[in-house]
Amino acid sequence: VWLKEASQWMPLGSAMSKTWPSLPEGWHLSLADSMERVLESQLAWTVEAMAPLPPGVAANQALRENLFALAVCIDARIPLLIVGKPGSSKSLAMQIVRDRLHRETKSSALRAAR
Questions:
Q1: How far apart are CA 33 and CA 11, in angstroms?
Q2: Are 82 and 69 in contact (CB under 8 A)?
Q3: Each residue's pLDDT tens digit, 51-83
Q4: Which domain holds residue 91?
């Protein structure tokens, strides 16, 4: 997981040590590791809940992040603008979420989550 700070991207652990320099040595790395594991597991769950993906679609990092952001913001009723380069799965993620939230095609994992 990377964070943008002062117009530069840095790993989560580095950002945390810069933000909280008074933390004990190594503590920020273990906290960053556990946060990354939680985020990765939630990204994976979101992709599994949206299964099956359309034929020929790979669950790359961009698609996983877009699906997660859309699912969280729709559930919390928070407006979301997804911006990015062409081909970064923005429209595809929206189509997948729309199809999976449609009553007739709603996935069983999403039904159980409510």
A1: 11
A2: yes
A3: 888 899 989 989 999 999 998 898 899 999 999
A4: 50-114
